[in-house]
Design a protein that fits this description.
168 residues, mainly alpha
């Protein structure tokens, strides 16, 4: 076994653990959101639910990348994770925008009510207009909205996932 082979194996092990860390952080953020929902009593709006879905998909992509590392398919799962994290960041950024907008962007009914009363083609545009409690002023931690924290989480996990891909 040559020095290059050993270096490649060490890089693969490092990338594997980085992917596991990304999945752990993403699942931990989902756990924090569930804690805030069920213990603190902050009900999620549709945008919060979409962010949770993005974190879950990111965790799955990261775990698949860790499982496949050092194979080339690990890179594909890593790239998928970056794309998912960027989509989640976009949703969180939109949520932050709604939170900081004037009250003219009022929140409407919750996601369940919309899914029961409208077709899916009408629900998605309404969700991104801000529904439920998307601008709830009580959803603030250390002076930053929970959507702002989520945006930071997505951006951080995007950078860490890119670092794992680059380690290959």
């Amino acid at each position: 076994m040559s020095a290059d082979d050993i270096r490649a194996r060490l890089d693969a092990i490092g990338a594997r653990w980085i992917y596991v860390a990304v999945a752990t952080v993403a699942l931990g953020l989902i756990g924090a959101a569930l804690f805030m929902q069920h213990v603190v009593g902050l009900n999620p709006c549709p945008l919060c639910i979409f962010q949770r879905m993005a974190y879950m998909l990111l965790a799955i992509a990261a775990l698949l990348a860790a499982w496949r590392s050092p194979r080339p398919s690990a890179r594909a799962f890593g790239v998928a994770g970056v794309l998912i994290a960027l989509i989640g960041a976009g949703i969180a950024a939109w949520h932050v925008r709604l939170f900081q907008s004037p009250p003219s962007l009022a929140c409407g009914p919750g996601l369940g009510a919309m899914l029961e009363n409208f077709p899916l083609t009408q629900v998605l545009p309404r969700v991104f207009q801000g529904s439920g409690d998307c601008a709830d002023a009580s959803a603030v931690l250390f002076g930053v909205s929970l959507a702002g924290w989520s945006l930071g989480g997505f951006l951080f996990l995007t950078l860490v996932t890119i670092a794992a891909i680059a380690r290959r």
